[in-house]
Amino acid sequence: xxxxxxxxxxxxxxxAVRAATDISLTFDPDTVVSLIGANGAGKTTFLNMVTxxxxxxxxxxxxxxxxxxxxxxxxxxxxxxxxxxQIPQLFNSLSVRENLLLAESIAATDNPxxxxxxxxxxxxxxxxxxxxxxxxxxxxxxxxxxxxxxSSRSKLLLLDEPTSGVSADEKFAIMDVVMGAxxxxxxxxxxxxxxxxxxxxxxxxxxxxYDGGIIADGSPDxxxxxxxxxxxxxxxxxPHAAA
Length: 243
Fold this sequence. Notes:
Layout: E1 5-14, E2 17-27, E3 32-36, H1 43-50, E4 58-63, E5 66-67, H2 73-79, E6 81-84, H3 96-106, H4 112-122, H5 138-149, E7 156-160, H6 168-185, E8 188-192, H7 196-202, E9 205-210, E10 213-218, H8 220-225, H9 227-234
Parallel strand pairs: 3-8, 3-9, 6-7, 7-8
Antiparallel strand pairs: 1-2, 1-4, 4-5, 9-10
Helix pairs in contact: 3-4, 3-5, 5-6
């Protein structure tokens, strides 16, 4: 099975700060992977390198068999990598339907109107179709943002803190809708998340970042139980073993 995305030996520094140190990861088709770590651990730096917002100092990023290092974010999106940001990127003065229709038109969908109707149903946005995006509850704004990201018929969807700003009561419902839509679309999902309950429920694989590097990679049960992850990512007080 050919990997959707392969990162090999990625390095990135900002002056004396090393934001990425020898990051090597492979992502298979139809998988859901969560990236975890404290703020500044390197998760968003990795997403920014994959999507062309940052160029690695060294290393290779393959989307399928194509090296995408040096391509612009727009070029990378056209290849089939979409991204939803922590703060939704919406046209606040337009309605939900108008936002979706614009996204489908930009993506050159054969029938933008039909695709918009499908997205309204798939993301449970139909009741909000006529509302201005700027007046929506945060959870619905997140759903609209993800639905617009998927309008490009991507093979890989990157989600940067999809439950950030969403109430505790809404988080699981929002993620249920997002992951259901991703399964229907047949896309690989990589999502950054700080809520470990969300990670444990929705991720099939977890990659833990710390200080620009990877300290654990595996199943949620294995990674979330690892002592270094509990100490450096989750923030538990774990006594050091006696000498």
